[in-house]
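Posting this for the archive.
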Amino acid sequence: MGGSRNRSHASRAFNPQLHSMHAMLVSRTASHVAGAFTSHGRDQSLAEGIADVIAHCGHAGLGLFLAAVWHWLDERRYFDAADAVQHHIESGTMPTLKIEPRIAQRRDARV
């Protein structure tokens, strides 16, 4: 693993002067992607981060967000995770958030 394939592409797009909310989302998402053990887990973590960015910053910052996540991972030598993010950047695809059903606790109506 000698690093990501096209290091210069995403590093040119990285802006260290990100909005503080955007920077926090980058850091949190990248650390979750790096900590995932499977490609499905990486995609799920990235999808959660994308949903957070869209909710807080809108669609306009999505490209910069992905480049910043890639840069964070590559800089810290998480090459497999960086390659997974780079694949989504190059292919123009976004992982989708898979909602897992939650079992609601039953409430007792008695007083």
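The chain has one domain: 8-91. Residues 8-91 form one domain.
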